């Protein structure tokens, strides 16, 4: 029956099903966005149930035998365009992966995740890792099971990494984080020997409304399309997309911290520009999705750091910011402002870390996750392991679990293999930005003039338009001529901090 | 197989399926709410597709044979509680009705509705009924077909009425609207013979933020639970519920019209109190749903008019409102304010009509809908028919289609049989409020003191808690001892306007 259908017909039936699945998933994303922005307190429990129902439906649709058969048949057709073929191949991969999970495991994981998250919330409030430990142990057990369900080559952690960054392996990450350790440690020590730069002026009173207006202005100037998105306030800033024509960002505002809102806006703006740049005609299909979490993070980091913490960027924006907050900044020259916003200072909390020490935070989590999966560590050791790592790598003493091992939500959600993509994002960003500088003459002057059109067009052409057509590895090679190479970040960081700390 | 299951088991499987359907429908409601409040412009087309997909899924779930079999078997069980039995009976009724629609008809109706709506938008902008007429004719054709799909006794219009108000018939409505015509016409003429009251002070400048704060304060004082809901701004005010713990209202603010925001807040607040009062334990089941549109409207109208336009109500609130807007209202005594907000003045636009002439607007639409279905009118006649009715009943001359036959969205949506529930709501409200006055000693003084706790508790106990357990007819008789009787509204209106216009 299916074999008699034309490729055109089959492909249409495939895309129709994929769009339907995307519609359900995007409806979930709307409910999720609402949950973080506007949901009244008492509405939370049933919202959870509504999300679970939609998730079950999406899973059922994406494991339907008919879809599997269509994919199977399409694989055998010779008359697919390259994009169509890629969509079929990747969808089949996703489909086969989905089918591997026994229903009982899915239910168990979903239940454990829910429990684990609530236990984490309680334990963090109580500042007591011991309360969280048994649930975390249970979660690790399930995650080990998941590596066997998914299958892997080499290290079991590879199975989980692949969920977030296709093709990433411990071999690759060991190389990357060895470089972090051996190259960034001396750089950090060099900085520590120099007199510290001042950033006190960033913590004066910055009025909420004025910050809000500034954030919106920055987003618009970056090229974020406000008719295809919006900004709202949430506890933790995030970007969410319901399709390339409806990509929303959130921010938070701390009146005692100029930086919080500013770079969260630029960061989420970077994510959002990627989503707005995905091809609308590939809605619901792999080629309409982001390449990987690492590539997604490369877009946010490139805007946040390579552009948004550069002297060029603030040459244009600083005079205006001084005008908005004259009492705080009129007496602070651009050069001091630039140094202040780039202060390097080892600290306890990952999300508040500077551009350099950030990667030690990620590395610590990577070491721990790998160790848990291979059995080097057990959850019982973790508090001690955590605190020792912070002392060794960052020379900071962890005073309690809330500021230590309980700070991040990820493990309670069962997200193992996620953290490394944060560092990969920065390293891809440095490499991409170097390529942009080479390929776009005058980029530095454009940024200093508040002009990002050429840069955005370049990102759209080089990266955004492809969706998942290329893996992150392939994309990196296509755009930069090389595989991911930590040296780009090292060069960028060394040069930057040399200028700022004068060594 | 199914016959071997215990009633308990079967009922659980039934409720589980119903909750799942409710989850999907409530997800649609969230997407709908977002569409009217926060959706960026370019996000509209795919939002439409996402809603269609969810609607298809909900329809499939609610026509699944397994659900039908479960319902069939449950009907035969003797050991159901009365509430359980009612849930089963009503669900089976809904299920059978859903099954009646051929898939081709559903698709045709959905497509026509979409086209019809967009044609209406264009025609209204162009102020040209002729542009809308062919699509409306097509819609009427489908609606006639629908009456045969659904089946009916007596008049075909009964089939459509039943969709919104179970048990309503043209016989019942003819009686009601005959009373409107014969009793309200002389009342209106009496009013028109008296000097008009002044309401110019309602159209001075009322600052947006102050109006917003006042609206929120009124909602809270009525007893609307802000932790189980929220207010936002939309073009047309509405209430939507995702479950009794998340019931949201919207309003609009016109700085040149004190009334627009004020009574829309109270009106939507009335709807929202009903939804917040539905039994949480019946989520997804008929006994967790509103009894009918007429009963829903009775709750909004009771608060908006019987409470919110009464002298008692403003005795409490007016001094505060004077303080908020001293320039506009300090010189306007309470008595003049009360008269102004109750001004009767025949006009062209239904949604802006006063409490009395409103029912002529509804009656006109009722006469036309009935006439279209029985063939007395064709869509080609309608512009003329409309304009003559407005001249005859309201003595107003319709200057153009935008302010005439094209003013309301309902027909373009295929909502025939909906309008009458607006009038029924007012008439139920008058009858319910009379019963409340009899059963709650001191109600008038309580309202004059800003105390609505007893009234709300009475509504919760008499009406809200039952969901769809009783039909509107049964509910009315249970609460008031009588069937719906227009005389309650007539007495209320006569007494009120006698006081205001002094005849």
From TrEMBL, chains A, B:
Binds 1 zinc ion per subunit. Zn(2+) binds at residues 267, 271, 297. InterPro entries: Peptidase_M32_Taq. It catalyses: Release of a C-terminal amino acid with broad specificity, except for -Pro. Its cofactor is Zn(2+). It comes from Chitinophaga agrisoli. Keywords: Carboxypeptidase, Hydrolase, Metal-binding, Metalloprotease, Protease, Zinc. The active site is at 268 (proton donor/acceptor). GO terms for biological process: proteolysis. Belongs to the peptidase M32 family. Broad specificity carboxypetidase that releases amino acids sequentially from the C-terminus, including neutral, aromatic, polar and basic residues. Its EC number is 3.4.17.19. It is an enzyme of class 3 (hydrolase). The keyword Disulfide bond does not apply. One of its GO terms (molecular function) is metallocarboxypeptidase activity. Pfam families: Peptidase_M32. This is Metal-dependent carboxypeptidase.
